[in-house]
Amino acid sequence: MQEKTRRLHVVAEYTGLKINVEKTNSMRINGKKKDVIWLNDKEIEEVDTFLFLDATMDKTGGTEADIGRRLGLARTTFVSLAKNNRKKMTKSLIRSIENALGARILKIHWPEKITNQQLYERTRSIPLPSTIKRKRWRWIGHILRREENSHVRTALTWAPEEKRQRRRPKNTWRRSVEREREEMGLDSWKEGQVVASDRRKWRSLLNGLMRPPEQGEDKEFNK
After folding, report:
1. Looking only at Cα atoms, what is the longest distance across the chain?
2. Peptide bond connecting 111 to the previous residue in cis, omega within 30 degrees of 0
3. Which of 7, 108, 174, 185 is surrounded by the most beta carbons within 10 Å?
4. 26: which strand partners?
């Protein structure tokens, strides 16, 4: 290995290149000899792993170390994102998949362009978040029409007396539902119970949830 390194150094100098010993490392795979490699009277450091073209190389010659490093980087980046950013990223991913499937159904390919509004109109579909929200409140309507002593009815408005443990998410399913209830114009669960008792009014309220994309969401989609 020493002779090969020397010959590489000679050829590199002949072509006008120079090997930086400080940035050069050596690694042996299944090597029996442990001789030190020298270059310009300086010892080349021997390592067990090193990074080459953004890929981790190790003595085993496998990909486990590289995959582990990449998963660790992705996990660290995801955790470092703010909670709101993770939520927006998830919604954006769902919207992208939904638009891609709609464009495939309509056989729209690059460089053709179509807006989200046109995509929903031509496929006669509703945004997935709105569909999920409508199904959730349709189920809540069934709960509000149950008897007062029903367990599921009690669980809808019941709040535990103990404080939530540390590191638990601040936003809960109940809090998000109560926020949606206020956005629907229902100030309390009592008012929601009155509206839910009239199936025609409740159905009309749910139909209002099946909205088209908001003005800021209607963007061109490239496929």
Report:
1. 91
2. yes
3. 108
4. 46
What does the alpha-carbon distance between residue 205 and residue 208 come to, in Å, rounded to a whole number? 5
Q: Packing angle between helix 189-197 and helix 199-207, nearest 10 degrees? A: 110
Q: At a CB cut-off of 8 Å and minimum separation 6, what does 105 contact?
A: 123
Helical segments of 106-198, H only:
116-123, 128-144, 151-157, 173-183, 189-197
Tokens 């939520």 belong to which residue? 87
For Cα atoms 14, 16, 20, give the angle at the middle one, nearest 5 degrees.
Answer: 105
Domain boundaries, the chain: 2-70, 83-157+174-223
pLDDT by residue (tens digit) across 110-144? 788 888 888 888 888 888 888 888 899 999 999 99
pTM for the model stands at 0.50
Of 19-33, 150-164, 184-198, where does the model show the most confidence? 184-198
Q: How far, in Å, are 98, 137, 154, 158 from residue 151 at the CA level?
A: 37, 18, 5, 10
Closest CA to 140 of 207, 104, 81, 189: 189
C-beta of residue 120 within 8 angstroms of C-beta of residue 126: yes
The Cα–Cα gap between 90 and 62 comes to: 33
Strand ranges (E), the chain: 25-26, 38-39, 42-43, 45-46, 49-52, 55-58, 113-115, 220-222
Token digits for 216?
Answer: 């800021």
